[in-house]
Amino acid sequence: MQSVSEQRENQSPPRTTDKPAVGSVGSGRWVLPPAPARMQVIGLNLYYGSNQVLRNVNLDIRDREITAIIGPSGSGKSALLWCLNRLNDLVPAARVEGKVLLGSEDIYAPDVEVALLRQRVGMVFQQPNPFTMSVFDNVAYGPRQHGIKDRRRLEEIVEESLRKAALWDEVKDMLDLAGTSLSGGQQQRLCIARLLAVEPEVILMDEPVSALDPISAYKIEELMLQLCNSYTIVLVTRNMFQASRVATTTAVLMGGEVIEYGPTEQIFESPRDERTDNYIRGRVG
Ligand SMILES: Nc1ncnc2c1ncn2[C@@H]1O[C@H](COP(=O)(O)OP(=O)(O)O)[C@@H](O)[C@H]1O
Ligand SMILES: [Mg+2]
What we know:
Shape: globular
Radius of gyration: 19 Å
Oligomer: single chain
Order of helices and strands: HEEEEEHEEHEHHHHEHEHEEHH
Low-confidence stretches: 1-29
Strand content: 15-25%
CATH architecture of the domain at 63-85 and 113-280: 3-Layer(aba) Sandwich
CATH topology of the domain at 63-85 and 113-280: Rossmann fold
Largest sheet: 6 strands, mixed
Bound molecules: adenosine-5'-diphosphate, magnesium ion
CATH superfamily of the domain at 63-85 and 113-280: P-loop containing nucleotide triphosphate hydrolases
Mean pLDDT: 89
CATH class of the domain at 63-85 and 113-280: Alpha Beta
């Protein structure tokens, strides 16, 4: 059996950029080993009305890895995540400056189809939010929106997506049951299956386990480690142990600024910014 990190190293995803991620936040320079970036955030400022919520954020979201975003409450973690699939378009007073690239495309370019973008970059929220329909229909919803009507094909997609979300064995005999009648952890995996059914490239997760019991949370963590072999994951979490267990790269957000970004081990074991050190040791946030 290969370990997860070996599995990750052994694959060669399509490369979008192949330069190493280099930056100079904090007191020193950090260099991550070269890896393609699936998304790049470049000089991003976000304002909610007159309140500047993100300040000159620069970040590479590396392909088929888990990038964790950690930081105190109110530091802009959700706001940053929302910028990555333009959910902030739904906030009337929101204004974005800078660029967010998906592959080489600027997601804020005028000709971008936002519905398609949100299919390519899906979101999992803190509170599981299955639709009030059956388990089957929850997962078949996206494919149906894309015009797939053939029952057999839909059944295949539903089974495959539920398997990938590690939920199939638990629900295969109750696909007609309401999605909302499942346990919290199952509902969260159902929401993940619903995303997978439309074949996303990036999965954004905003504190996906913080509403769940420890066993359900553990299952989702295991699932994330599986999924990052095929998908790029951005995980917002306030649980630093979780970040250190699953993320290859970690960004620390404070007051809307990325104060540190680098290999997770380095962030937790030898942070270069005193504020990160204080935060990790529980003196802030
Ligand atoms: N819809 C909104 N309108 C105005 N300000 C908001 C809105 N949502 C969040 N904010 C503000 O944006 C900042 C960042 O919030 P958020 O991204 O939710 O932080 P985090 O997820 O790190 O806890 C906070 O100061 C918060 O008050
Ligand atoms: Mg938040």
